[in-house]
Design brief:
- This protein is mainly α.
- The chain has one domain (3-88).
- 77% of the residues lie in helices and 0% in strands.
- The chain is built from four helices and no strands.
- The longest helix has 27 residues, at 3-29.
Length: 90
């Protein structure tokens, strides 16, 4: 493996880990509605929504998933990021 590929894989691995950490924090914040209105939580929601939104759009095409009261896109995105992070392990 070349040095550039190694560095790129490590940076991507760390970036995916950071997004997963922000998603975990977002999940915790959803249980604390009184903390939703500040710049830190707005940042967390903006960063994680960029990753979750495409998955949500795909899942909404399936009527069975779209009619569910639970937003599965968060869980599916987290699992996809875990698979990506495992593939990036060097």
């Amino acid at each position: 493996m070349s040095q550039i590929t190694y560095v790129f894989a490590n940076v991507a691995y760390l970036l995916v880990g950071a997004i997963q950490a922000l998603m975990f924090i977002r999940a915790l914040l959803s249980w604390l509605p009184m903390l939703e209105e500040n710049s830190i939580t707005d940042f967390i929601y903006q960063v994680t929504e960029v990753v979750i939104y495409p998955v949500r759009c795909i899942l909404e095409r399936f009527p069975a998933v779209a009619s569910m009261p639970l937003d599965l896109s968060f869980f599916v995105t987290f699992i996809l990021l875990s698979v990506l992070q495992t593939a990036l392990m060097v």
